[in-house]
Structure formats: C-alpha cells, structure tokens
Known about the structure:
Number of strands: 13
Largest sheet: 5 strands, parallel
CATH class of the largest domain: Mainly Alpha
Radius of gyration: 19 Å
CATH topology of the largest domain: Arc Repressor Mutant, subunit A
Structural class: alpha/beta
Strand content: 15-25%
CATH architecture of the largest domain: Orthogonal Bundle
Strand order of the largest sheet: 2-1-3-4-5
Order of helices and strands: EHEHEHEHEHHEEEEEHEHHEE
Shape: elongated
CATH superfamily of the largest domain: Winged helix-like DNA-binding domain superfamily/Winged helix DNA-binding domain
Amino acid sequence: MTSDPQARVALIIEDDADVRQLLVMTLGMSGFTTIEAENGRQGVALVRERHPDLVTLDLNLPDIDGVEVCRQIRPLTDAYVIMITARQDEIDRLIGLEIGADDFIVKPFSPREVGARVNAMFRRPRSTVRNVAQPLPGAEAAEESQSAAGVITAPPAAPEQTENLLIHGPLTIDPEGRIAMLDGIELPLTRIEFDLLATLVSGPRRVWQRETLLSRIWGEGWVNDQHLVEVHIRNLRKKLGEDTKAPRFIRTVRGVGYRMMPPSAA
C-alpha cells in the first residue's frame, strides 16, 4: 500500500492474493494510494470509512458476490467501479453495468490494459455539457466529415437555459450540481448515465454517434466497445420510464446512434 496523502485512493476488493498484489502494483504505478479488502463485507466497510476514488471489484468473492457489493456501495460513493471476473458470460457484464459499474475487465488481464482504462476514466470530465452556442474546436470539420460519410444531422439547437440549467420538456438538468430531474423529481442516475443524458440534451437535434459518445464520455480507450453505450442507454431509458416502442425522450437512429425526441413529444 502506498502512502502519499495527496494521491487518489483505490480500493481493491479481491480474494485472490496474487491478483490483489498485481492490482496494487498496477494502480500504485498510476499514482494511487491503494487499500485492500479480501471479501465483500470488508470492502463495503472500507468504502464507508475511506471514500475511495476508484474501486476494483472481483465478481466472485467468498462471502457476498461482486454484484451485491456493487449494489451496496453505489449509494455510498460516486467512485469509479471496475468489475473484474474470470467469467466471460455476457450476462455478467450486463448485470454489472446495470447496477452501477463503470467498466468490466475479464481475467487474465494485462496490467497495461488496466492502467490505460483507469487513466482514461480519470481524464474524462465530470460533466460533458458545453454551451452549444460555442462549438468545440474542430466541430465544423467533424460535421463536414459526418456529412461526407452520409450521416445527416440537423443543426444543433440550444436547449432552453435558465441560470445554467438545461431544460428539455419535463427534464431539467443542472450540469454544475450534476442533478437531473424529471417532472420535478430527481433521477437516481449513475455518473455515466448523467453524462449521457446531459450530452444528448446539450445538442437535442443532433444525432449522436455511438463512437462520439464513447470518446466524449469514456475516453479514447473505448472507441471499439460500442456495446457500453447501448447498455447504459438502456439503463438510462429505464430510469426515464421509457417505452422503447414509443420513446418519449431518447430515439434510436438505426445504424448511427441516438438523439433526443422534440420537447413537445416529451
């Protein structure tokens, strides 16, 4: 365990001592102070006591499994959570992401891969919302590139803004406070779900390509993992009370990505 008081804290919840030490070494090299838990109950207690910035969480723990641990710690922390498992079943990945994990790594893993994914997580901003009246550098070139590729997008239209709030029909988003409300009731969104919703609402007429969402929200290391977007969009839709056959808020543009429905439809 490293001891720099200024370092970000990583909690490693893993019963395999060899894997635990590998993660200690890997995360230590990335500048983290590391703390360790050998089982789920100990891990939940350390989340309460130490407030880590990152949690790596083994799916197969000796007392309570990683899915239940993630369920218990998610209301306690907004730390990034990476689930680690030897099982490659797709259902494990979906369940993990649905209950608030940010990423999913299968054993055996490369320390370089873990380091790259963690660094990409912490490079991405807490909020991806920008004033759409001030386009990102290179945005015009990107739009021209999309047009050349046959992807037609309507000009981005600024949502209604009141004191830095983004308002889209019954949705109100506070980017600074990271609060999203539907009909005046706060939505229990994870960090990624909030970033996805805020990004979509920031350009409500734009068709957001999956690759663009991955790059903006997850970072460049995830550009080939479009399934992450689909899973988190599905979870976001559930929390919005969406009927996928008649969407109220998020419309799928087949083969391209997603865009917001007009406010009148919401």
